[in-house]
Amino acid sequence: MKLTQALGEQTAEVVGKKLFTISRYYQTICITHLPQIACFGDNQYSITKQIEEQRTKTRVKKLKADDRVEEIARMLGGTEITTRTRTLAREMIAGARNVVLQQQKK
Fold first, then answer.
1. Which of 34, 55, 70, 71 has the fewest CB atoms in 10 Å of its CB?
2. In this structure, how many other beta carbons lie within 10 angstroms of the beta carbon of residue 38?
């Protein structure tokens, strides 16, 4: 079982904050499907797999700010991304940035 499968939303946010704190001292790579964790990352990547000529190819793309909002919104809303999920994604990313700024002041 993956760690994130057993986490609720509030717990996932706490884990995201803890991972951010750890990342200030150690190189940290986190693979997650939970937006509550992903929004705390300094960088976010999209990883996709595609079968071409009977071979599986994996692509990794660093997300720009707008792409990051879309990916967080997709994590929140599944296949249907709406204005509401985009707004919530922006709020989550901004909230995570506020936590980061508060921790940096300490």
1. 55
2. 23
Phi/psi of residue 58, each to 5°?
Answer: -110, 135
Q: How far apart are CA 29 and CA 103, in angstroms?
A: 20
For residue 91 the two structure tokens come to 């709020």
Alpha carbons within 13 A on the beta-carbon side of 8: 2
* Distance of alpha carbon 70 from alpha carbon 72, whole angstroms: 6
φ/ψ region of 78 (left if φ > 0, alpha if ψ in -120 to 50, else beta) reads: left
CB 12 within 8 A of CB 20: no
pLDDT above 50 for 80: yes
What would you report as the CA-atom Rg of the chain, rounded to the nearest whole angstrom?
A: 15
**How does residue 9 score in pLDDT terms, banded at 50, 70 and 90?**
low
Residue 13: per-residue pLDDT: 81
* Structure token digits, residue 7: 């986490």
